[in-house]
Amino acid sequence: MGCAGSRAKGDDSSKRIRKPKPWKHPEPITRTQLMKLREEFWDTAPHYGGRPVLLSEIWDALHAAAEADLTLAQAIVDSAGVIVQRADLTICYDERGAKYELPKYVLSEPTNLIDDN
User: What integer pLDDT is reported at residue 51 of this predicted model?
Assistant: First the structure.
């Protein structure tokens, strides 16, 4: 028997969230364009997967986590029962095994972000 806070080795739900690695958009993109991409993704996210019963709850938790600092994001996914497959949140699962994929552009800014001017 282990400590109350210990988890079994290999338990994916114990992964600590980290910032995504730097990435580059195929073309330079403005902050306004990035915000539009993010808005479009979150508006259509339920069509990307998940289970109908938990769909809104999990997507809402992932949306909140994507916009939060790392400590709060960890608390959000932990309390929602999200299983983090990749520590940068690009692949997660709900308790029943439904997969949720997040594009990097909702999690961080590209290295080739340009001014709107």
Answer: 58
